[in-house]
Design goal:
CATH class of the largest domain: Alpha Beta
CATH superfamily of the largest domain: Alpha/Beta hydrolase fold, catalytic domain
Strand order of the largest sheet: 1-2-4-3-5-6-8-11
Number of helices: 6
CATH architecture of the largest domain: 3-Layer(aba) Sandwich
Number of strands: 28
Strand content: 35-45%
Radius of gyration: 27 Å
Shape: elongated
Largest sheet: 8 strands, mixed
Helix content: 10-25%
Number of domains: 3
Length: about 525
C-alpha cells in the first residue's frame, strides 16, 4: 500500500439510519467478567526458568449489546500492551475499545494472555510471544466452540492488539507451525511449548480470523507474510517509536531481546503479496500515540488519534464483511476544514449528499478529549443533494482548538465527524465562552488566562453607566464566572473585562430578555 502521512484533516464518519457496525446503535451493554477460555502453564513470578511454571486459567472480559436480536454477530478480540511483562485485560484502552465497538453492534472481548520472560534472553522473548499467540488461538477457538451461546458469526472474528498485543495479532494469522522459532521447542531447562492451536483448550477449530489490526506492533520475520496466509491486515505506527521499532531493531533498544521488523518493513513485504493491507504511518509520533502509556490514559489522553484509529478500524472491518444489508446514509461529508482570520476561527464543511438530516452540532475542545457544544445549524438537504456550510468560533482558545461535527438525523440517531485542529494566537486573556446570550437570569463566562491574575468585570448599559463591577481572581488556564442579571432590565448591554495589571480591556455585547 502507498505510504501516507496523517495530516490535520481527519477522515469523516457518516451518520445513518441504524447501520450495524457503523454507528452507535445500542445505548447499553452487558459485561461478563472473568470468562475462562482456557488453561495453560504460565511462567512463575519472579522469573527463574522457562520450566518454572504453574497452570493458570486464561481469562477474558466479554461485552455484548443490550437489546440485540441478531443471532450471528461480528466479534473483536483485543490484546493489551505491556511488553509481555505487565498489563492486563483491564487496561484502560482495551476497556475503552470494547465500549466503543460494542455500542455499534459488535461483541467485544479483552484478552488476558500469559506474561513473563527473561529480558536478557532472546530465546525467552520469542517464547513469550509464542505463548501469547497460543492464547489468542485458544480464545478464537473458544468463541468458535461457543458461537451459538454468544451469538458469534465465526467468519467475522477480528483481532486487534496494542504493542505486545500487536505482536500477537500479527503472529496468529501468519506464523505457521512449520515456521515457529526453534526456541519454542524443548531445550535445556525449557519445555516444548507445542503447536499454535494445541494449547489452552482442546477445541478442534481453526484459529483463522477475518482480519488483524496492529497498533505499533512488529514481527520476528517478514517472510511469514505470504499469500497462503491471506488474512487482511491494518497497520498503525508512529515513525518516532522508541519502544517498538518502526522499521527494524530491538524492542526497548535492548539487544538482548530478539530483533524485530516493524510496520514499515511489514508493509513492504505485504506490498509483494496479494494480501489486502492498509498502512497508516504517522510522522514524528512515538509509541501508543492514541494517548496511553502501557495501556493507561495519560492526562492529555486519549488524543485526537484515538477516534482516528477507531474510524479507520471500523472501515477496515466493514470492508472485510460481505453480505451486510445496504446502508442508506442520510449525510456523506466530503470535507471539513478551518482557518483563523482576525482572531476568529472560520469553519467550513461540505456534504456530498443529505437525506433525513435534522441538524449539525459544532463541538469544541481545548484538549481533543472533552468536547462540548459550541453552536448548531439546521441541515439543508432533504432530497439527497449536498450542501456547503459555514460557521465561526468568535472566541477560540489561545493555542490549540479541536473541532468536530455531531450529525443528528430526524430519528435522533447521531454520529461524529473526524476531528480537526486549529491553532489560534496565544494571548494573556481570552473570553472563550459567553452564554446564554440572550440572557434571562445568569450569564456564564468562560475565561482563559495565560497566568494567575486579577481582572475587573463590569456590566455597562448603553448610556455608559456601570451597573455592576466585580473583581475576579483568575488562575492559569480556564476559569468560569457567573454574572447575575436577575435585577437588570431588558435591553442591550456591554460586559467589559479589564486587566488590573496593564489596564487592557475587551467588551462584548449581551442582550437581556
Amino acid at each position: 500500500m502507498k505510504y501516507c502521512l496523517l495530516v490535520i484533516l481527519f477522515p469523516l464518519f457518516s451518520a445513518a439510519q441504524p447501520c450495524r457496525y457503523q454507528i452507535r446503535l445500542f445505548s447499553s451493554f452487558t459485561k461478563t467478567a472473568n470468562v475462562i477460555y482456557g488453561n495453560a502453564p504460565a511462567i512463575n513470578a519472579p522469573y527463574l526458568l522457562e520450566s518454572s511454571t504453574t497452570n493458570q486459567n486464561l481469562l477474558l472480559e466479554l461485552f455484548e449489546p443490550v437489546g440485540d436480536t441478531a443471532q450471528k454477530r461480528a466479534l473483536i478480540i483485543f490484546a493489551h500492551s505491556g511488553g509481555f511483562l505487565n498489563g492486563t485485560r483491564n487496561n484502560e484502552d482495551m476497556l475503552a475499545l470494547c465500549d466503543s465497538f460494542v455500542h455499534r453492534g459488535y461483541v467485544t472481548a479483552t484478552l488476558e494472555y500469559r506474561l513473563g520472560f527473561n529480558p536478557l534472553s532472546s530465546n525467552a522473548s520469542e517464547r513469550a510471544v509464542w505463548r501469547g499467540i497460543q492464547d489468542a488461538s485458544a480464545a478464537v477457538r473458544f468463541f468458535k466452540q461457543n458461537a451459538t451461546l454468544y451469538k458469534i458469526d465465526t467468519n467475522r472474528i477480528f483481532l486487534m492488539g496494542s504493542s505486545a498485543g500487536a505482536f500477537i495479532t500479527l503472529g496468529l494469522p501468519f506464523i505457521d507451525d512449520s515456521e515457529r522459532p526453534a526456541s519454542t521447542y524443548s531445550g535445556t531447562f525449557r519445555p516444548n511449548l507445542g503447536c499454535k492451536d494445541c494449547a489452552g483448550n482442546s477445541y478442534l477449530h481453526s484459529s483463522k480470523i477475518a482480519g488483524a489490526i496492529s497498533c505499533w506492533g512488529a514481527t520476528g520475520d517478514t517472510a511469514w507474510f505470504k499469500n497462503n496466509n491471506n488474512t487482511p491486515v491494518q497497520l498503525f505506527h508512529g515513525d518516532a517509536d522508541a519502544t517498538v521499532p518502526f522499521t527494524e531493531g530491538y524492542p526497548f533498544g535492548l539487544p538482548t531481546i530478539s530483533y524485530v521488523r516493524g510496520s514499515q518493513q511489514i508493509n513492504e513485504q505485504l506490498n509483494r503479496t496479494s494480501i489486502y493491507h492498509e498502512f497508516y504511518p504517522v510522522a514524528g509520533l512515538g509509541h501508543e500515540y492514541w494517548g496511553t502509556s502501557n495501556g493507561t490514559f495519560i492526562p492529555a489522553g486519549p488524543t485526537m488519534y484515538w477516534q482516528e484509529i477507531i474510524f479507520r478500524a471500523t472501515d477496515f472491518m466493514l470492508g472485510r464483511m460481505t453480505g451486510l444489508p445496504t446502508c442508506v446514509l442520510p449525510v456523506t461529508l466530503s470535507g471539513f476544514s478551518g482557518n483563523v482570520s482576525r482572531d476568529i476561527v472560520q469553519l467550513r464543511w461540505t456534504t456530498a449528499s443529505e437525506l433525513n438530516l435534522n441538524y449539525i452540532i459544532i463541538e469544541r475542545s481545548i484538549d481533543g478529549r472533552s468536547f462540548r457544544e459550541l453552536t448548531r445549524v439546521d441541515g439543508k438537504g432533504t432530497n439527497g443533494n449536498g450542501a456547503t456550510y459555514l460557521s465561526s468560533d468568535d472566541h477560540p482558545y489561545a493555542g490549540d482548538n479541536y473541532y468536530r461535527l455531531k450529525l443528528v438525523d430526524q430519528n435522533g440517531q447521531f454520529s461524529y465527524s473526524g476531528i480537526i485542529r486549529i491553532r489560534a494566537e496565544e494571548k494573556e486573556l481570552l473570553i472563550t465562552r459567553l452564554y446564554p446570550n440572550p440572557v434571562i437570569d445568569f450569564l456564564q463566562v468562560e475565561i482563559q488566562s495565560a497566568k494567575n491574575q486579577d481582572i475587573m468585570i463590569s456590566l455597562i448599559d448603553y448610556s455608559g453607566k456601570r451597573l455592576q463591577v466585580t473583581e475576579v481572581n483568575l488562575t492559569q488556564g480556564l476559569n468560569n464566572h457567573s454574572l447575575s442579571f436577575d435585577k437588570i432590565a431588558a435591553g442591550l448591554y456591554l460586559v467589559q473585562f479589564t486587566s488590573k495589571l496593564d489596564g487592557r480591556s475587551v467588551a462584548l455585547k449581551v442582550i437581556r430578555h
